[in-house]
Amino acid sequence: xxxxxSSFSLESSVNGYFDDDGRIRRTGTLMSASAHIITAVIGSxxxxxxxxFAQLGWITGTLLLAVFxxxxxxxxxxxxxxxxxxxxxxxxxxxxxxxxxxxxxxGFSYKLCGISQYGTQVGATIGYTITSAISMAAVKRSNxxxxxxxxxxxxxxxxxxxxxxxxxxxxxxxxxxxxxLTFVSIFATIMSFGYSSIGIALxxxxxxxxxxxxxxxxxxxxxxxxxxxxxxxxxxxAIGDIAFAYSFSxxxxxxxxxxKSSPSENKVMKKASTIGVGVSTLLYTLCGVLGYAAFGNDAxxxxxxxxxxxxxxWLIDIGNMCVVLHLLGAYQVLIQPFxxxxxxxxxxKWPESRFIEKxxxxxxxxxxxxxxxxxxxxxxxxxxxAMIFPxxxxxxxxxxxxxxWPLTVYFPIEMYISQAKIQRGCFTWIWLxxxxxxxxxxxxxxxxxxxxGLAVSVSDFELFHSMS
Length: 468
Fold this sequence. Notes:
Main location: membrane
Keywords: Amino-acid transport, Membrane, Transmembrane, Transmembrane helix, Transport
Number of strands: 4
Number of helices: 16
Helix content: over 70%
Number of domains: 1
CATH superfamily: Amino acid/polyamine transporter I
InterPro entries: AA_transpt_TM (IPR013057)
GO cellular component, one term: membrane
Shape: globular
Domain Amino acid transporter transmembrane: 27-454
């Protein structure tokens, strides 16, 4: 048996079909990893940044974008070294974020990470479903405004658009593994540049056209239409929205697992993280700053839909469709690790089940009845929840608050301290702990604001009657 195993290993290595761990050879590159990151980062969060600036003002809004970008970039660099253990270059591979947490921090942290990661991924897919429906409805509204005039409300129910998005996701969800998403990510990245560029261009055109929207260094002022308490809650919610805009660490190691082994994965991933965070921050800054300059303190929660009241309507339609096409791909980039977790657990739990194990082939395409059934049910359940809770800004803020501290800050820092064997009480240990604690406090404030926003929205909401 040993001779047979050795022969297989040697033959595999010679033919180049398998990597050092016996899995099919990885082919990911700096470009594909950067595309995955940009797809995961630039999501529906970018659409709420003008609203965030309206709550925070020029100074705090710009500062928070920069701070979250720097913290995210720094902790991502720490996280890339956790792909292999104990040595970041020659150690054993960790195929997922949860596996890295387990080998570095132990069982309790592993369970806590699973709750945080998969709960966040599920929440993000709900947010993406809501956002896509709003953008599809915005296309219909802008066409209605163009045809009937802006005095017509042109309101429409979102449920039909939620169902359209769900039907497409059911098909895309049959892509079997994360490694097969490269084309989807590249296409989604192009779409993200498309709608961000359209939003930026429309903002510039609105400003150049003589718009003098009221802005402020500190955001919407306290007054007859905004109490001090209301402003405080909105600020907390805006912080959560910005955090959500940078929440991609939960799939970073899964992205890293797609890379070729030479050059070393951590070096390539550090470059990809720098590119991804850098490009995203540039687009975020432009969208937030120019969107706030164009709409001022009246900026809506989804600033691209705000252009539905203006011409050229066809360009706004293109921008909103780019949002939908991007989120179709982003949904898959975020949820594939959760799909893999459930399916791996099921394979181990019922290894003899033909329903779970049997693969069927139609030409070069393979499908599995268990994968088809459970992934379809997942998309359906997410869509139902999106119909019940279609509250864009508060929902994004809550996801961001729940995600950012544990997955972007706490676990990367704790794993780095463990793997690098940093001594308790030394300078590096102290400032890393202070950074983690500060981010925790910010996350709790953001969560409080978002929960309060959801509570207010629910009080005025009619079940399954979401309108745009």
